[in-house]
Design a protein that fits this description.
The complex is a heterodimer of chains A (353) and B (339).
Chain A: H1 27-45, H2 51-74, H3 76-110, H4 116-120, H5 136-167, H6 170-184, H7 188-202, H8 209-234, H9 237-245, H10 250-278, H11 282-287, H12 306-314, H13 319-352
Helix pairs in contact in A: 1-2, 2-3, 3-13, 5-8, 5-10, 5-12, 6-8, 7-8, 8-10, 9-10, 10-13, 12-13
Chain B: H1 35-72, E1 83-84, E2 91-92, H2 95-126, H3 129-144, H4 147-173, H5 190-214, H6 218-226, H7 231-260, H8 263-268, H9 287-294, H10 300-335
Antiparallel strand pairs in B: 1-2
Helix pairs in contact in B: 1-10, 2-5, 2-7, 3-5, 4-5, 5-7, 6-7, 7-10, 9-10
The chains are: A mainly alpha (353), B mainly alpha (339).
Chain lengths: 353, 339
């Protein structure tokens, strides 16, 4: 990055002054205006026409201008400090740009197609070129699959977390904890391939919503275990001891004292996990196959799901299909964001009390 | 600075339940340990062991279902760059796919890590205390966006928008082999896929780095400032050395995530085979993307081949993730500062 020396260079300003010379506050807007003007000139000369790049180029020019001015007036140490400060602010801006761009694009392109008819119709008999169709079948699939996945993953994960926090000591516990971490890093497509190899190929089952929910379960487990573990650790030890002192056996203490105390945090963790798997596409692609028709039964026949629907529509060249993909993306993002915000609200409300 | 108990939880810890629970000792009458208690304890332990069994099952079934396809393969699985598992005789290998997987993931990491460290510094050091957590939440929201939406956005919005930058890069820096193209053709390239991946791993790396920076002892930072250090000098002297293992670990976890990402890459890349360093040219494929693209037309051997490639991905991500955990675990042993 910068090649400034930090070690022993003192300010180049007056020798007797305690503080070196400082750039006047007015200098920064001037540099900023200069950077923008220079960028405009650059755009007139060359053939660039992107707004995002405009922001980035003027940001870099501002960075250069400010650093040069600061080196000249304030000396290299303060210049390095200013340089990094601006760089850090730019880094944050760089993270916000894609978030805003993605959200803005999804809303702008999805809102036109999103209406009651879109939410309440399936794709049965609708070709890629046809204007109609909707996501009803995919919505049903997604809701059923994440409900089933939660049903499998949450009790299991809670038991694992209870074991790790309340009982686990020594090698076995450390090994389990380590492999929870490993499972966290498991690519979602591997979960899908595993269910394909195990449930569909080895057991000879047909693809179904149930197979998809099994794959999602594998992805939910590590998230819920970690969230529950953190929350169980936060339960004050005095509560457990008070319960033991009253002669309550350990299992009852855990179920009636520890778990209820940690419950809001666990609910938050579960909801974040649900939000995470609701957007998973790859494992579902391999396990539920997708269909254009409504299938309420997750245990028989192929189902669809929102992410899978977006994937298949986005791959079509027709604009009508792409419009459907954007509208479905808007629905999915609304669902996921809603889960996220509610989860964090629960966490916040629980903390106040 | 204290760690916010409500912040999104990220886990670098290798050791699990280290809370010192005092056993309800009943030395006087051991008979008071009820059978229900024993049953409950065994139930939770069975669940824990079930988790280990699950991981073992994943490895076993991937291997079992891959072998028959690998036996039928007429090419060398690790060095062949072509992928014709549905042909007879089947001829396929992961070389090109593995190359694409590693290349996209590494470029994504190179792009994402500096920005993520900047974000983490911004939130822990620069941002006003009041704004720090809301701003962190905004970055975390980026992690909540489903990957298929990043793919949709990458394909339909980002690819056309990146044309200008890609053409500029190949026009002026085409003499660097990495930025060379065939007759200036750019488009759905490795580079764009890497940018999408970088955006996707950014919140993960930023959140983990932030956690580590928050653990830097205040005394270290105040000592640096008391000696007259500027804020940047304080960061260099106190924050970065302390946070380095955490940042390395976070970057590797991001790398693992980038390698396993499927749908976004499958939508952005044109799914071609072959090993090429021209990251701006419209070509490239990854193991995960190939699974998504090739599954629909795969026959029995084809599915086995995809599972075999998945096994390679499983092993590579496993190694990267374990290495990441090892880095942070070693830090914990030496410093003793982490709670």
């Amino acid at each position: 990055m910068s090649t400034t020396t930090v070690s022993s260079t003192t300010g180049t300003g007056g020798g007797l002054a305690l503080r070196g010379q400082k750039l006047p506050n007015a200098a920064f807007p001037v540099i900023a205006v200069g950077a923008v003007v220079l960028t405009v000139l650059l755009y007139l000369v060359t053939s660039i026409d992107s707004t995002i790049q405009f922001v980035l180029i003027s940001g870099v020019l501002y960075l250069i201008g400010q650093t040069v001015a600061s080196v000249l007036v304030e000396g290299s140490r303060r210049a390095a400090d200013r340089f990094v400060t601006t760089l850090v602010y730019l880094a944050f801006l760089l993270a916000v740009i894609p978030l805003v761009a993605v959200l803005a694009n999804v809303i702008a392109k999805g809102v036109g197609r999103l209406d009651v008819g879109f939410l309440s119709h399936s794709m049965r008999g609708i070709g890629a070129r046809d204007a109609g169709g909707g996501i009803y079948h995919a919505l049903i699939g997604t809701l059923e699959q994440i409900a089933l996945a939660s049903l499998f993953a949450v009790p299991f994960s809670l038991l694992v977390a209870i074991y790790l926090v309340e009982y686990g000591r020594g090698r076995i516990s450390r090994t389990i904890s380590f492999f929870v971490d490993v499972l966290t890093g498991l690519p979602s497509v591997i979960a899908g391939l595993f269910i394909l190899a195990f449930y569909i190929l080895a057991l000879g089952q047909k693809p179904s919503g149930f197979a998809g929910s099994l794959a999602l379960t594998i992805l939910m487990i590590p998230i819920v275990v970690r969230a529950a573990e953190e929350m169980l650790k936060l339960v004050p030890h005095e509560l457990r001891e008070a319960s033991y002192a009253l002669g309550v056996p350990r299992w009852r203490t855990i179920l009636k004292v520890v778990l209820p105390t940690a419950l809001p945090g666990i609910v938050t963790g579960v909801m974040l996990a649900v939000a995470r798997v609701a957007g998973e596409t790859a494992p579902l692609l391999l396990t539920i196959f997708g269909t254009d028709s409504i299938n309420f039964n997750p245990f028989s026949g192929p189902q669809s799901a929102l992410p899978l629907y977006i994937y298949s529509q986005a791959g079509q060249p027709q604009q009508t299909a792409v419009d459907r993909a954007w509208a479905a993306a808007l629905t999915l993002i609304a669902l996921v964001m809603l889960l996220n915000v509610v989860a964090r609200l629960i966490a916040r409300m629980a903390r106040v009390r | 600075m204290t760690s916010d108990p409500d912040g999104p939880r990220t886990h670098l810890s290798g050791d699990g339940g280290s809370v010192a629970t005092t056993e309800p000792t009943s030395s006087s009458d051991a008979a008071r340990v009820s059978p229900v208690d024993v049953f409950f304890k065994n139930l939770t332990r069975t669940a824990g062991l079930g988790l280990l069994a699950l991981i073992a099952a994943i490895a076993v079934f991937l291997v079992v279902k891959a072998t028959s396809a690998l036996n039928a393969n007429t090419g060398h699985f690790l060095t062949t760059t072509e992928w014709f598992p549905n042909a007879s005789p089947p001829f396929f290998g992961v070389a090109a796919l593995l190359f694409g997987t590693l290349l996209t993931a590494v470029i994504a990491m190179v792009i994402a890590v500096p920005v993520a460290v900047g974000i983490a510094l911004f939130i822990t050091v620069y941002a006003p205390r009041r704004l720090a957590m809301p701003l962190a939440f905004i970055v975390d929201l980026l992690a909540a966006v489903p990957s298929v939406i990043f793919g949709l956005w990458g394909l339909l919005v980002l690819v056309p928008r990146m044309d200008g930058l890609q053409m500029w890069l190949t026009d002026y820096f085409g003499w660097i082999p990495l930025f060379a193209t065939d007759n200036g053709a750019v488009g759905r390239s490795i580079f764009v896929a890497s940018v999408v991946l970088a955006i996707m791993i950014l919140p993960i790396v930023a959140a983990l780095s932030r956690e580590v920076f928050l653990q830097v002892p205040i005394a270290h930072k105040e000592a640096a400032l008391a000696l007259g250090a500027t804020r940047w000098e304080m960061i260099r002297a106190a924050v970065l050395p302390y946070g380095k293992p955490g940042v390395i670990s976070a970057s590797m976890l991001g790398l693992g995530r980038a390698m396993g990402e499927t749908i976004a890459v499958a939508l952005v890349l044109p799914a071609s085979f072959g090993i090429s360093w021209k990251i701006l040219a419209p070509a490239g494929n990854t193991i995960a993307a190939n699974v998504a693209n090739g599954f629909a037309e795969a026959n029995n051997t084809g599915r086995g081949a995809l599972i075999a490639s998945g096994l390679v991905l499983f092993i590579v991500t496993m190694i990267v993730n374990m290495a990441a955990r090892a880095v942070i675990a070693r830090r914990r042993e030496f410093s003793g500062a982490a709670s």
